[in-house]
Amino acid sequence: MLAWRFTQGMLLAGLIVGSAQATPVTAVFGDQAGTLWAPAAPTAVTDRSTIVIGFQVGTGASAKRYSTGANDSLMPTVPAFTPAQFQALAPDSILTPTSGSPLIGKGTAFPIDPKPPTPPPLAPLITDGVQGLELATAVFNLPAQTLRFRVGLPASPDLTTPAMLVTQVGDTSKPDVYQFVNSVGTVVGHPVSIIVSPTGIARINWQFYRVDGSNAAHAPGTITGVGPRAVRLASFTLADFGITAANAGTVASFEQSLSGESDVAFVAYNKGLVMVHGPDMAIDLSGLTNAPLVQAQSYYGTFTCQNRGTGGASAAAMPATNCTVSTLPAGLAVSGCSIDTAAPPPPWTAGQTLPAGATVTCAVSGTPTALGTTAVNGSTSGANLTTINGTPVTTPDTDPSNNSAMLALTVSAAPLADMRVDSVNLPAGTVGQPYNGSFACGNHGAGAASAGTCAPAGLPSWATADCTPKPPAALASGAVINCTVTGTPDAKGSSSVIVRTSAAQESDTTNNEGSATLVIGGTPNVMIDLSGLPTTGTVNQPYTGHFSCTNQGTADATGTVCNATLAPWMALGACTLSPSSSAWTSPSDIPGGQTVTCQVTGTPTQTGPSTINGTGGTNTATTTVTVAGAALPVPTLGQWALMLLAGLLAAFGLHRSSRRAH
């Protein structure tokens, strides 16, 4: 109630109730964008969004703290608190007169609404925020009416824990009446009439809007007698309503009769003690991100609406059941919905019943036509319609905070290929020897490559390249074209080889080349020749000869040998390299096409054959030198005469010797 109904001197001791004294809330704890709000005195003022995350009842040693479940991690832990789950009661609608005193109140830190719609919806203002527990938005002077909710209580109810949490953010002189009733309309227990005292636990600085749209925002103080307003909360146990274990099972509904002067931020119930049998429609858009959205490529995604409540969303209730999205990217549309109440899931359309626990899945399909980001808005709705004591009772969605969702969907360009030359492996080769080399090209892009190529330029004529798969080829992301280079080199030399790769569309063409130099070298081939050594000799006669080593290969022979194992009577003379005629010793280099010639001399001392083994590089040769004796001389005529004379003299001597003997 606005300040013109508040007498400054009026002080009430507490909350006045019909048959029981409620437990006053002595401390409140709020979540202000992640920062704990815990006002230390009734004069503490706030002006911004505040979600009630907990409260304290009682004082001193008897004080007890309870959380609301809105953000237990932010609650002070000393003293310890009892975890609970509170949810704001959500009426399907509130009478909104087009004239009169009802006002919309928002903390002054909220953005100013220059002119709300006429008439504005009031129900969202007492169910907004996490679990509907926003303290800094409210409706002042709520129109007189009775709100009914289909509820149930446990058979063995907890009668000592707070079951209801009530707010009063203005000043009122008329009581609101809360009560539980059975299926025939009889009050279970007793009604509770509530008037909240002017003493609060904190204050909120408000800006106001008239529901008839006749004015813009009122700054604090522009309405007579208005300044920051006291915030008051009270909690009620089921025992405060006269609920017992004997009558709890008969409860069918909860009624909230508003006086017309109520200034309410929310009225919340403990979900562990009071079960509101209404739907809780929750939409989930996450299934729309299960597949990428690529321009000009087909797309399929889903979104779901689940009834998490304990009451079904009725076909005849208002608002009608619904599960929809809007502002989908161009080219996409909802292609149909189904419900998981049978197998296979039957089709479902808006306005049909959605039982408690059931989920509707809607498909979105098509081909995105435009690039960019689109904010997709999803919404769901539903209410439970039942008859209690002949009176239709509509129980709205118990948690409107999950009735809508927004998801940004981005349509991107189709991913492109990125062909790269991965390797060019062309090792050095040798003339006349089989050659093996390789090169490879891979697709390193996120998209597939069409007509991917991988080709060399500059290979020598003897070389052949063979690739798998054969270019041009379609290559998935990560696929590789592997190529071999084979052949037999027929000449020395070097070749500059460039390997190039490509695809129809690429994200980067700066890495499409690779290069290497293919070097082919010759092979040395040193042959020894022993034909310069005469194969015969004569005892005591001088012997001369030579052997030679010629490099017949296409490369220099480095550190090579050219020698022979000679007969003992032979001696190795000087070796020369031709055509330069320079001195040469083994082992040394023999350039390609040049010859080393080594001299051999000696005088045989005995007859017989000698085996000569020669080595030139890696080649060998063998020859045999046979030494013969010297030939006997033939006597001349003078020699024969001397021999005859000697014989005659010998005969004459023998004759004379014979005569003396006689």
Q: What does this protein look like?
A:
The protein is mainly beta. It folds into 4 domains: 3-7 and 21-276, no CATH class; 281-411, Immunoglobulins (Immunoglobulin-like); 419-521, Immunoglobulins (Immunoglobulin-like), CATH 2.60.40.10; 526-628, Immunoglobulins (Immunoglobulin-like). 4% of the residues lie in helices and 44% in strands. The chain contains 1 helix and 48 strands. The strands form 11 sheets. Strands 1, 2, 3, 4, 5, 6, 10, 13, 15 and 18 form a 10-stranded mixed sheet that branches. A hairpin with a 3-residue loop joins strand 43 (570-578) and strand 44 (582-583). It is rod-shaped and about 195 Å long. The termini are far apart.
Provide keyphrases for this structure.
about 650 residues, mainly beta, IPTL_CTERM, IPTL-CTERM sorting domain-containing protein, Immunoglobulin-like, ten-stranded mixed beta sheet, five-stranded antiparallel beta sheet, disordered N terminus, 1 helix, signal
Distance between the terminal alpha carbons, to the nearest Å? 201 Å
Low-confidence stretches: 1-20
Helix content, binned percent: under 10%
Structural class: mainly beta
Protein name: IPTL-CTERM sorting domain-containing protein
Signal peptide: 1-22
Organism: Ottowia flava
Pfam family, one: IPTL-CTERM
